[in-house]
Amino acid sequence: MASYNRTRRIAEEIRKVVSTMLISGIKDPRITSMVSVTDVEVTNDLSYAYVYVSILGGDEESTLLGLKSAVNYVRREVSRNVKLRHTPQIIFKVDDSIKKGMYMDNLIKQVSSKNSEETMHKDEEYDK
């Protein structure tokens, strides 16, 4: 349990550093301002940190390429701000949970409107 808490604390610190860097630190034109860090998962041995980013608007592939090209700079900044014996390798992954959530919300709205239309038709039949 203590190991889990430690990895979560380290993941949260890495998330803060990378989020700050996305706002002001990385000057790659491929990285749009609509990139945000949604989560960071650190392996138990602290060798890898999976940084999940949400990319809204812009070209997702070129933004991810920009992030991957800046991975050494990001790792260096993480090592300066998070005091660890070995800084984990940073691996950026796209988090599409927001897109999936919007898609599910749209499906729910469609089903809800279809159900309300069916209810209205049934009410009209009862009125006759």
TrEMBL record:
Subunit-level organization: Monomer. Binds 30S ribosomal subunits, but not 50S ribosomal subunits or 70S ribosomes.
UniProt source species: Romboutsia faecis
NCBIfam families: rbfA
Similarity remark: Belongs to the RbfA family.
Family matches, as InterPro entries: KH_dom-like_a/b, RbfA, RbfA_dom_sf, Ribosome-bd_factorA_CS
Annotated compartments: Cytoplasm
PROSITE patterns: RBFA (PS01319)
Lineage of producing organism: Bacteria, Bacillati, Bacillota, Clostridia, Peptostreptococcales
Keywords, ordered alphabetically: Cytoplasm, Ribosome biogenesis
Gene that encodes the chain: rbfA
Protein name as annotated: Ribosome-binding factor A
Top-rank taxon, per record: Bacteria
Major location (coarse): cytoplasm
Role noted for this protein: One of several proteins that assist in the late maturation steps of the functional core of the 30S ribosomal subunit. Associates with free 30S ribosomal subunits (but not with 30S subunits that are part of 70S ribosomes or polysomes). Required for efficient processing of 16S rRNA. May interact with the 5'-terminal helix region of 16S rRNA.
